[in-house]
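Continuing the batch. This is chain 6 of the set; chains 1 through 5 are on the previous pages. Same settings as before, nothing changed between runs. Recording input and output for traceability.
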Amino acid sequence: MVKLLVIDDDRMNCDLIKSVFNRNGYQVLSATSGFEGLTLFRQHAPRVTILDLRMPEMDGLTVLKEIRAYDPQAAVIILGAGATEEQENQARGLRVTDFIRKGLSLDVLVASVNQVVQLPAKPPSSLRALSSVAVADMGETILVVDDEPLIRDLLVQFLSLRGYRALGVKDGFDALAMVEQAPPDLILLDLFLPGMGGAEVLRQLRQRDYVGGVILVTGSYDEDTLDEAWALGPQEVIGKPIDLEQLLTSIQLVLVCREC
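Output for chain 6:
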């Protein structure tokens, strides 16, 4: 059975599309956020991904970029309600398989998917092979500390595909244990963690003379907590939802300054 993935923040749209394609003999997975969608994409390698353009936190173009980084050959159909010409051009520049404006008959979408699955399937890019080659050239190690699996996995994947040796752990205790074994060059540290908050992890790192960079990541702006964390000397604080390009720029600056 051909496997499809639907990524749309509107649960009703997901359920409608899923129902239509189930009746047409497809197996359909669905996600209501870009983070969740990318996780399902990596886990299940769908034959076709149907992707909403306008979503909060991570829009369709950002998701498409991440899919392309993971598998340049993947078939992706974008649903573009209210899309501008610039957005459509960006999508086509990222080799989107088809661009369908919402509001058209679902028959148009079904026909587009049927056309794609009739073509010979292109072999997916071997991520493991890519990673094994990249690791040989990697100099900088980045440790991602976040208790949210979707965010942690996305950041690890994003950084790995950009040439870093990225590792992920779920809490401060695991982070400190890894630092004892092999100190990373930089730590992306969630400020609010269960058991041991990010500020306490940072305090422990300073007591252990950790000399790498630290970028704090937070979805909350509690002034007392932020003041406590800033006093411990992180290089940067980045808010959630995370702008991946801004994050990459911050990482590059921190690592360059560390070398200086």
